[in-house]
Each structure stands twice: as C-alpha cells, then as structure tokens.
Amino acid sequence: MAVVKERESPRTVHKISRPPILKIYSFQCALVLFVSVMLIPLDKIMAYSLFIGGMISVVPNAYFARQVFLYTGAAFAREVSRSFYRGETGKFVTTLVLFAATFIFVQPLHVFVVFLAYLFVMLLNAVILARYAVLGKKN
To answer: Which residues cross the membrane (predicted)?
Structure first.
C-alpha cells in the first residue's frame, strides 16, 4: 500500500469580507441630512418628512448589517444563521415601529415624501453594496 504524502501548500481559508458598514450608513445618514437641510427654505414639512423617511430606511438596515456580520466562518455556521434571522426580524419590527410612530406622532406630514425618501435610500443602499461587491472582486 502506497502512503500518500500530504501536499506542501498551505490551506486557504475563504471568508466573506465584511463591508465597511460604518462608512456606508454614515454616508447615507449624511446624504439624507444634507438633502433635508437644503429643503428647509423651500418647505419645512417636506424637509423633515424626507429626513424621517430616510432614517426609517437607514436605522433598520444598519441594525441588520451589524447583526449579520457579527460572526464569520464555517466554524460559526449556527451563530451566523441565528444572527441573520435575528437581524432580519429586528429590521422588520424596527421598520414597522418607526413607520407606525411616524404616522401616529408626526403631524403634519408629507406621506408621499416619507415613502419616496424611504425607497430612495433603500435603492441607494442596494447600489452602494453592489458597487462594493464589484470592487471587492477586483482586489
């Protein structure tokens, strides 16, 4: 029986790189704040409606991203799965609570602007993460 010699090359470990979460969500907050401040001279209600809608998008997504990237690697498969579900549940509940609180406690409000800002920031989030994924593959 021949003995198979082990390969001399080192084993490689594949990890999913963590996106720069703080940079991504800080940029989104800054952009929402900037556009809101620029709208104040035109319409104050529209300005704070835009700010609220943008923050309703940013806050739950930042929580989700933080939860998802707490653990990495196959050794933590169970923890990764749990943190993913915890993050998704928290994101969903937080979004519902923020929308409900906005509609109950904030009057007057441009509802269309709230939803438009929410959708815009959601799309911005997807574009930033897609761009990060493409740039990450090049490196």
So the answer is: 21-40, 46-69, 89-106, 112-134
